[in-house]
Specification:
This protein has about 190 residues and is of the alpha/beta class. The chain is built from 5 helices and 10 strands.
Length: about 190
């Protein structure tokens, strides 16, 4: 949603054979503020869609109001989803791909490096029951899984039952933007 989160898309868009469109919420809660989705800098197309529950701060519970018609218009070859497997919006994206005239290859990205049963949620919380169902659906319908590190692959294979092809591609860090602070002279 915010500028720095789109750094990798700026890098990907530099390849002449990639026609890149990203779909982001119009507005979303980042920390304690509601921020407007960053519209990019022109190297790639940005589609901002309204979302349900985007202002709640609950990352895994939001979803888009008009994702299917947007995907029908875009007709992507690849749909890359960057949410956790229990995310409603990830399930929505995968559900929509099965309704397109030409189904794109679907890739999901996860940093889940801790085995979860979702029983960490109290019995009174809906997430305890919804998240396992959504996770199972997403893992059954994705074509490929990208893991943020090697531990994620281990968790996906052993506790989540992932059988799809997987690659480890960690997020990069721009050393011009992020570097160690100089030593404190005192």
């Amino acid at each position: 949603v915010i500028d720095v989160y789109q750094d990798k898309f700026r890098h990907l868009a530099q390849y002449p054979d990639i026609d890149l469109t990203i779909i982001i919420p119009e507005a979303y809660r980042e920390g304690s503020s509601i921020v407007e989705g960053f519209g990019g800098t022109g190297e790639y197309k940005v589609v901002k869609l309204p979302v349900f529950f985007g202002n709640s701060g609950r990352q895994n519970l939001h979803f888009y109001r008009s994702l299917l018609p947007t995907l029908q218009q875009l007709q992507p070859d690849i749909l890359h989803l960057e949410e956790e497997p229990e995310s409603i919006v990830m399930a929505q994206g995968l559900y929509c791909t099965n309704r397109l005239a030409s189904r794109p290859t679907t890739i999901i990205y996860t940093w889940r490096n801790i085995a979860k049963t979702h029983r960490e949620w109290p019995r009174t919380k809906l997430q305890r029951y919804i998240y396992p169902l959504v996770e199972r659906y997403t893992l059954q319908h994705a074509d490929f899984v990208v893991a943020g590190n090697r531990e994620v692959v281990d968790v996906c294979r052993t506790s989540m039952g992932v059988t799809q092809p997987m690659s480890v591609i960690p997020h990069g860090v721009d050393p011009e933007t992020y570097r160690p602070a100089p030593p404190d002279p005192t």
